[in-house]
Amino acid sequence: MKKLLLLLGIISGSISASAQIDVVDNQTAQALAQTLTGAGVILMNPTLNCAGIANGKFTTISSNLGIDSGIVLATGRAMTSGGAYGVNGVPGNFASTSTGFPGDANLTTLINSNTGGSIQTHDACILEFDFIPSGDTIKFDYVMGSDEYTAFNCSINDVFGFFISGPGFATPKNIALVPGTANTMVGISTVNNGASAAPGNPCYQNTFGNGPYTAYYVDNTASSTSITYNGMTQVFSAVSTVIPCDTYHLKLAIADASDDVYDSGVFLKAGSLNSTGIQLTPESTAGANTPTPHCIRGCRSGHVGVTRNAPRITPLTVKYLIEGTAVNGVDYQMIPDSVIIPANQTEAIITIKPLLVQYASGPKEVIIKVLSPYNCGTTGLPTIIDTTSIWIYDSLFASIPTAPITVCPRTEIAITADIDPSLNFSWSPAALIPDPLPLGLTIHPKPVVPTNYTVTVTQPNAPITCQPVSRTYHANVEPIPQLRLPSHDTIICLADSIDLEVFAEPLGLAYSYNWSPASNLRNDFSNNNKFYGGVGDYKYVITAATPVAHCSNKDSMYIHVVPPFEFQSVTPQDTTIKYGDKIKLSSESEAIYWIWDPITYLDDPMTRQPWASPLKDMNYEVVGINKYGCRDTAEIRIKVVYDPKTGMPNAFSPNGDGTNDVFKIGNIQYEKMTQFKVFNRYGQLVYNGIDPAKGWDGTFNNKPAPADVYYYHIKLTLPGGKQVEYKGDVTLIR
């Protein structure tokens, strides 16, 4: 009556919520049994004695159930329908439905076995089938949940059991037992939160005086992503030893006890009923940053655990096939084709020791296919009951996925390494990394110059053959440009233009330039610019920037444009001098530098008043330059005249008395003789020379010429290039 009153209160206060598991009810015995059955089990003769609404297949959407899919057997509804709640509700929904099915004798015996009571069972749901195991053990996973939690922990409770019968079992045996116990059934009174537990009630009677096992209980009242029931167990495994290849019977049953109020259900994991007897478990040594079991050449060995479900008093030899792309004895140390699980133990280890090779060959796979120690078929061929693999990688995994970047000096950058989490790592050069120690996978250096940052990974506790792996990131740093200007302060004259060539150092980079303002310049972007402007003062700011990071620097220059100047006087203007005379040239102005051109016949072409001694007509140009570099130009023209004083004698007497002994031209100064010929009256040439200092000594063919009248023809070139001739006769006197 107490249960009924509480039922009415809960129904009146129930709320609706969306299901967190999907359930499809009203399954066949074959569908339920096949869903439960996994490897190493041959299923036969399934039967179902259960209301269609009380069984189903489920798939987990979001729940703390711990099982992703499977079958469910319940004392009420399996699937929620409107306001009639099954297992797929949320806490707060009340599941309590009577199916009208009778109870079960095995369950009735089980519920009364420890309490001495005479409670009857109702609403039973029973799935039974025969099976042949290929191994020496069977095992399957399950969770039991109930809405009797927690108000009725230690009173009259619903009951379930998994009963196995066959060779070795005189009577059906319940294998739904609390872990670590020999015969404590799993139930509401044995696994709960401890509320209402006291010596003398079922919470102690059914646990043989130990009290409820609270560590295995899951409180579901506060969960919003679970099942309808208020509480449930953790995921348990039902395990039993069997004789390989014999036939057994399994009965899975659940029922209400005493009355049909408050539903309970048992969830069985899909495919978990197996009897392979041997399982393979790969153990990865890590290092390659992949969840796939693996090991690294030269580094720590990988392992494959070969386990059986329970220890036996005799050792077990387990054979297996070795396959895959990795070559036994080449890519890894030679392994045999079998291991022995020692007596009274459950596991043996296959060690995969990866070997170094000369050249990297890419990942290689070692595949282990374990063969059943028992052969239940008729072919006589061994049966593969489990398969696993371990990959062998060439090297430890490390990379720096940070994208390349170019920055300016002292710019902070973030460099991140990606490594296998199991590895040790270090950065270098550590002195250039300002992050606090110990350094993490992301560092924040501020490089001043192009710098390589290297992360190196090692495997902890690895043999010396395990080679470290390094990855390097190049941080490219562009320098701050240093501008070189032709001058910071320049003075030019009006009407002058000036080339402005600037450049940045260090050389070798394609710098960009900007001039501000751009007025009076050829453009605002060239490093080889040109200025032309009126009288005034001009300031320009020049900025240079690097091509990628745009690291910039600036400098400024001033240009002062001043008015031009003029000579006050230049003397003489146009003048004439005699050949051989000299004359002073002079200029008056504010010039501080002078250049006279040409420099011919000048004593100093760089002075204000040079002396000129021209031997021909000359035009001299003088350029004056003042302190600002402004120029003026003037010209002086000088005409040079020559008055020859030469004369010819009309007679000479070559008698050796020292007077008139030689016939020659007199008073020659600057003239150049180009011809001096003397002929006798017969036209015969008696003298030919061009040396005005020698003349004719009155001989012919080295003999004195006779006294007579002779004829001469003389040519002279005067200064300035004028040609003159002298013709006449002269008397030779003896």
Automatic annotation (TrEMBL):
<protein>
    <submittedName>
        <fullName>T9SS type B sorting domain-containing protein</fullName>
    </submittedName>
</protein>
<dbReference type="InterPro" id="IPR049804">
    <property type="entry name" value="Choice_anch_L"/>
</dbReference>
<dbReference type="InterPro" id="IPR038081">
    <property type="entry name" value="CalX-like_sf"/>
</dbReference>
<feature type="signal peptide">
    <location>
        <begin position="1"/>
        <end position="19"/>
    </location>
</feature>
<keyword id="KW-0732">Signal</keyword>
<dbReference type="InterPro" id="IPR026341">
    <property type="entry name" value="T9SS_type_B"/>
</dbReference>
<dbReference type="Pfam" id="PF13585">
    <property type="entry name" value="CHU_C"/>
</dbReference>
